[in-house]
Design goal:
Helices cover 27% and strands 25% of the residues. It has helices at 28-32, 66-71, 75-87, and strands at residues 8-11, 19-22, 40-46, 49-55. The mean pLDDT is 90.
Length: 88
Amino acid sequence: MNRKLKIYEQSMGGGNYTPVPTILLKGKWLEQSGFKPGEYVEVEVNGDEIILRKTTPPEIKEKVSLEEKVRMLDKKQRAKLANLIDKL
């Protein structure tokens, strides 16, 4: 089953208008092709081809405490952070 769709221009949002190409995929044909609301797709880009595949939900990353994030900084980053905190 083939469809021809127009590529629109929309803003990324956030105050400044930054136009980006936008493709809207909607219609009963999606469900007829096995894509149902609530499911997830993976997007693969190969040159001028875009391939959509059904996939599993993204993994939920464990929340890392602020203390752990600070411990992961290197010496330079810690010094920058300390300098910023001192300015507060």
